[in-house]
Design goal:
Mean pLDDT: 92
Helix content: 25-40%
Low-confidence stretches: none
CATH architecture: 3-Layer(aba) Sandwich
Largest sheet: 11 strands, mixed
Order of helices and strands: EEEHEHEEEHEHEHEHHEEEHHEE
CATH superfamily: Ribokinase
CATH topology: UDP-N-acetylmuramoyl-L-alanine:D-glutamate ligase
Distance between the termini: 28 Å
Structural class: alpha/beta
Strand order of the largest sheet: 5-4-1-8-9-10-11-12-13-14-15
Strand content: 25-35%
Number of strands: 15
Length: about 325
């Protein structure tokens, strides 16, 4: 079983537009409302692939009720931690060419008692888990080291831990030594303090992160694919999306795909890239299912210390 914990979940409303023009009145071509939050998205992908998954999350207000209701038709198992503040809502504007503009609410603050209740509930559920995925932003006012505490809680329950966040929360989580770190390029840049200029520098930066105690590093690179740096080697995976419709949740789908394929090595990376590519071809915050994958089109190459690529067989 894989357990996800999302301290700052959301209702995601996606509005489809021909083109976004600032200051103008627009007529929407369509609207999707989906359950949101990075850990929630991971759980949705896992469940759609018939993998046992549980989403642990705080819910509050009408929005929190709606979030749980939207997950029910997808058969996602949810462990709710009731909180006083309303769950946030996010808005995504998706243009016809795939350009995506996101407007994310910060998320209402949780009390110290509510944060502790979420950590405690995770520890209880994690005793049955192979992996725990702690992901997404933290709600307003939450301590930067909250994910670091969740890493220690999940490890204490006997689970491996993957973390996907940003900023100070990601840096603090690294110090706790998660088994897997799953940043995108912008998050890796923020963590390292400089933007890698090419694939060789991305690999070197990921190796530097690993040297500080993280197990493996899975870096999603948008339309360029993904890079995995593990114990003994590094691999680069790429595929071509037929049509980019929305980039929302593509990194979450990639992380789920990686864990579905065992959470280690080049074949797990192949699955990650296939899931990420499938996600961008879907509207709004829809998550891909196995039937929407084109895994045979994913290309994997090994990356040496200099950044040179060595193709692997499909």
């Amino acid at each position: 079983m894989i357990v996800t914990v999302t301290p700052n979940p959301s209702l995601d409303r996606s509005v489809l537009l021909d083109r976004l023009d600032r200051g103008e009145v627009h007529r929407a071509g369509g609207v999707h409302v989906d359950p949101g939050g990075k850990g929630v998205n991971v759980a949705r992908v896992l469940t759609a692939a018939d993998h046992s998954a549980v989403a642990v999350l705080p819910t509050g207000g009408v929005e929190g009720n709606s979030l749980a209701e939207l997950l029910a038709p997808e058969a996602v198992s949810v462990v709710e931690v009731p909180v006083e503040a309303a769950t946030r809502s996010n808005l995504t504007l998706v243009e016809a060419d795939g350009t995506t503009t996101k407007i994310n609410e910060p998320g209402n603050a949780l009390t110290t008692g509510e944060l502790e209740a979420l950590r405690t509930r995770l520890g209880e559920v994690a005793t049955r888990a192979r992996w725990v995925v702690a992901s997404g932003s933290l709600p307003h006012g939450c301590p930067d080291d909250y994910y670091a505490g969740l890493v220690r809680t999940a490890r204490g329950a006997g689970a491996k831990v993957a973390v996907d966040s940003s900023g100070a929360a990601l840096a603090e989580a690294c110090a706790a030594g998660p088994d897997l770190l799953a940043p995108n390029l912008a998050e890796l840049t923020e963590l390292a303090g400089h933007r890698p200029a090419d694939l060789a520098e991305v690999a070197a930066t990921a190796r530097a992160v690993r040297s500080e105690g993280t197990g493996s590093v899975l870096v999603t690179l948008g339309e360029h694919g993904a890079l995995l740096v593990g114990d003994e080697s590094a691999w680069f995976g790429t595929s071509n999306a037929r049509r980019v419709r929305s980039t929302v949740g593509a990194g979450d789908a990639a992380l789920a795909g990686y864990l579905l394929a065992g959470g280690d090595g080049p074949e797990a990376l192949r699955s990650a890239v296939a899931y990420g590519s499938a996600a961008v071809e879907l509207p709004g915050s829809r998550m891909p299912t196995p039937k929407e994958l084109r895994i045979e089109q994913v290309r994997i190459t090994e990356v040496d210390e200099s950044g040179r690529l060595y193709p692997m067989s499909p």
